[in-house]
Automatic annotation (TrEMBL):
InterPro entries: Peptidase_C39-like, TPR-like_helical_dom_sf, TPR_rpt. It comes from the Bacteria. SUPFAM superfamilies: TPR-like. Residues 52-157 form the Peptidase C39-like domain. PROSITE patterns: PROKAR_LIPOPROTEIN. This is Tetratricopeptide repeat protein. It comes from Onishia taeanensis.
Length: 322
């Protein structure tokens, strides 16, 4: 099956510092509470707190492994900080970088979703009961002190957010201070979820990228529930149907794959790879006429799949000699 390239590389910063009280006080003095839409419009409660999120205290420069251990255990993966340190910690940089955080989540059979970088996306995700790894700069731009924490709740009337951070679980921080420290990481936030679950506060494009990137490590069969969840939430997403078609095909569900590829072409008639895969799948199902029509449509569309479509047409439907 044909797979167009989808890739995403986050900014790489190193985090692994202890809390700097003086810097936080400086930031708190000049920070303002972020603007948040009416909670009713957002569909979230005024308060939310995720109970029983495991807490792992941070040792020197180990905030990355500690934060990942918390969200991985919450998602059902039993793993300790010591097992994660060799996969994450970079001694020469005294911390962990974002790409390694994401790669480690994938190796543990979970999908790392990087949220849209705004406070409302974070609040929606917390309200849905999904803890979030956040990256903060606990100092000033000229002397950054990068740190990972895990957000587990919020209180809008009190203007606070609740974090597992440093050596202390369930610490409330003023939203103004939190947003000031979080903004310096471009508001980087990540959720680790099992296949089939998608964060509340994420765009269709970001969710598509996360699931596609997970295919580097996890099989199409393992990721099929995620593709199913993606098109259920965004039924007009052509690339979601395309990914689901590939996952169903790999699972042996050829009829279901054909249905998914049809939906992909319906929502994006210019998606040549979907027409090509639809034609090949239908040919395997013995639906020759519809297969030929799909391959001819793929061959008419300019781009990287045009030559392949023409070659498949010639091989599967050779012209008869006069």
């Amino acid at each position: 099956m044909t797979r167009p390239s989808i890739w995403h590389l986050p900014n790489a910063r190193t985090a692994g510092v202890l809390l700097c009280v003086l810097s936080l006080l400086l930031l708190a003095g000049c920070a303002s509470t972020p603007r948040i839409s009416n909670p009713e419009r957002l569909g979230i409660p005024l308060k939310a707190s995720i109970a029983d999120v495991p807490f792992f205290g941070q040792r020197d420069y180990q905030c990355g492994p500690a934060a990942l251990a918390m969200v991985l255990n919450d998602s059902g993966v039993e793993i300790g900080v010591d097992a994660l340190i060799p996969q994450l910690f970079l001694p020469n940089r005294q911390g962990s970088v974002q790409p390694e955080m994401l790669a480690t989540v994938r190796r543990q059979g979970r999908i790392p979703f990087v949220l849209d970088n705004d406070i409302e996306s974070l609040l929606k995700t917390l309200a849905a009961g999904q803890p979030v790894v956040v990256m903060q700069n606990l100092s000033l731009p000229i002397a950054p002190l990068w740190h990972y924490a895990v957000a587990i709740g919020y209180d809008l009337p009190e203007e606070t957010i609740r974090l597992h951070t440093g050596f202390k679980p369930s610490q409330d921080m003023a939203l103004s201070t939190f947003d000031a420290t979080w903004a310096r990481s471009d508001r980087w936030a990540m959720v680790a979820l099992p296949p089939g679950e998608i964060p509340a506060g994420i765009s269709a494009a970001a969710a598509l990228s996360a699931i596609s990137d997970a295919e580097r490590v996890q099989s199409a069969v393992e990721l099929r529930p995620s593709w199913e969840a993606l098109v259920e939430r965004w039924p007009g997403l052509a690339m979601g149907w395309f990914g689901l078609g590939n996952a169903r095909y790999s699972s042996g569900d050829r009829a279901g794959a054909a249905d998914a590829f049809r939906f992909a072409t319906l929502h994006d008639p210019e998606l040549a790879a979907a027409w090509l895969n639809l034609g090949l799948t239908l040919h395997g199902l013995g639906q020759e006429q519809e297969a030929r029509t799909a391959l001819e449509q793929a061959a008419r569309l300019p781009g990287k799949w045009q030559d392949t479509a023409n070659a498949k047409l010639a091989a599967l439907f050779p012209k008869k000699a006069p």
